[in-house]
Structure to design on (481 residues):
């Protein structure tokens, strides 16, 4: 059963269709990679699904519950705010620029939402946080502040912060694009581990090698639409669409393929 | 004339000035007490997307920053007893009028400083809070405001230092604050010495203000 179903999603920015009639599903435990040129609407799509942007048309069904629908008259209806409030933490998001809270320690970055949104006790939240810190290899940084971390460490903390809310789906918006090349590996490693644990993830990425290796399915987007969809083998080795072929030609995979 | 310079007279002058300084400090602290939180309310109104809220607030800020504080003092003292329709007229005690004028005036300046601080916080902070499920209220008070406070401390300290010196304006309403007392003394003994002693008082007060803000900035320097 799909955990997320998106039907005919449209998002306009100043008359421009950033996301133009996109439909797809994500199954439980699946890793979905979204690739495509800049400005193709990948990030906007992610922002719509994490409820950061209001959509202009379409239906979104999450865990069997319709959270956004469009009436026959074309009116977009979101679920009532109190329901959305419960759903938001279940849709985790990792940003390109980390967006850690600079005035909180690493530990508190991770525990703040579990305590004040999920209502956990401080102790329970810290237990979860230390477990996650161990997992991302940053146990020794619990009491550091974000400015003391490298980009790769910051992004790993951001992942831990999202995981602490026990999301059903974790969305990644180009998680390594703001990192120095030598730091992308440590972040990708964490995502890879999550994939092995069957965490449901949707990853917008420019790391083609990573998408090929980790994703169960790949969406290729261009000009706001899903142009091609398939398993990594198909998309990277035998793309059928001309635009997909043209896009992938720009990447040098080295000996990976 | 000569008698002024004996220590007893000098000490007496100091006592008088201290008394005036007490009034000055009252104006200072009461103004801060009211204007700091009021400024936050004003800035929230100023940033409201609803024009019926933000337009009057903008107008209010324009008036408070655009006219002399000394005139505002006179207005709040005389308006209630003269400009209101018959039956609604009332007398505002001069000290109360002074506090009202100062609080509103400083709140307008603080509001704009707060706004600058709030708008300098990156969108990503709001978005990170939103996806974690924080309510708008939680986001503002837990995530945004603490960061704003760190950023606005230097401009706020500017305003607070100015406030120490601006308190001298309340003498226009006949309130015996530090500078008025010093001026009276100066006239009485026919010497400028009391004025300079008063100046030294202001300097001491602002030295304390400066130290307090340095401490606060240091306290918040644990993060960047």
């Amino acid at each position: 059963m799909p955990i997320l179903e998106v039907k005919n999603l449209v998002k306009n920015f100043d008359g421009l269709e950033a996301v133009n009639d996109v439909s797809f599903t994500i199954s439980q435990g699946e890793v979905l990679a979204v690739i495509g040129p800049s400005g193709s609407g990948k990030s906007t799509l992610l922002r719509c699904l994490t409820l950061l942007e209001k959509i202009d048309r379409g239906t979104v069904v999450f865990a069997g519950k319709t959270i956004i629908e469009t009436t026959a008259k074309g009116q977009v209806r979101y679920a009532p705010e109190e329901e959305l409030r419960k759903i938001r933490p279940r849709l985790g998001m990792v940003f390109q620029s980390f967006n850690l809270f600079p005035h909180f320690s690493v530990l508190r970055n991770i525990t703040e939402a579990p305590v004040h949104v999920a209502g956990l006790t401080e102790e329970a939240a810290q237990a979860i946080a230390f477990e996650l810190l161990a997992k991302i290899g940053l146990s020794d940084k619990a009491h550091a502040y974000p400015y003391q971390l490298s980009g790769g460490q910051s992004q790993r903390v951001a992942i831990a912060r999202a995981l602490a809310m026990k999301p059903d789906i974790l969305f990644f918006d180009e998680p390594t694009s703001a990192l120095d090349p030598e730091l992308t590996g440590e972040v990708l490693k964490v995502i890879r581990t999550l994939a092995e644990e069957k965490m449901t993830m949707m990853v917008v990425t420019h790391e083609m090698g990573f998408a090929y290796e980790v994703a169960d399915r790949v969406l290729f987007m261009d000009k706001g639409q899903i142009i091609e969809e398939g398993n990594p083998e198909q998309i990277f080795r035998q793309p059928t669409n001309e635009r997909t072929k043209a896009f992938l030609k720009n990447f040098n995979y080295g000996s990976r393929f | 004339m000569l008698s002024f310079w004996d220590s007893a007279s000098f000490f007496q002058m100091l006592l008088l000035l201290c008394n005036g300084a007490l009034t000055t400090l009252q104006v200072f602290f009461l103004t801060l007490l009211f204007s700091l939180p009021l400024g936050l309310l004003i800035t929230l109104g100023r940033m409201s997307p609803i024009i019926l809220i933000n337009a009057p607030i903008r107008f209010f800020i324009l008036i408070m920053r655009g006219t002399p504080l000394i005139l505002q003092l006179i207005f709040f003292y005389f308006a209630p007893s003269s400009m209101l329709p018959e039956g609604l007229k009332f007398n505002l005690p001069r000290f109360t009028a002074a506090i009202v004028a100062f609080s509103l005036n400083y709140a307008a300046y603080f509001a704009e400083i707060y706004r600058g601080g709030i708008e300098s916080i990156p969108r990503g902070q709001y978005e990170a809070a939103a996806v974690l499920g924080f309510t708008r209220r939680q986001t503002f008070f837990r995530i945004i405001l603490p960061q704003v406070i760190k950023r606005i401390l230097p401009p706020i300290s500017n305003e607070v230092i100015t406030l120490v010196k601006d308190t001298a304006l309340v003498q226009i309403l006949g309130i015996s604050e530090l500078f008025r007392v010093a001026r009276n003394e100066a006239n009485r003994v026919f010497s400028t010495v009391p004025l300079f002693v008063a100046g030294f008082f202001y300097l001491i007060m602002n030295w304390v203000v400066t130290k307090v803000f340095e401490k606060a900035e240091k306290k918040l320097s644990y993060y960047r």
Notes: Chain A has a mean pLDDT of 93. The longest strand of chain A covers residues 2-13. The radius of gyration of chain A is 18 Å.
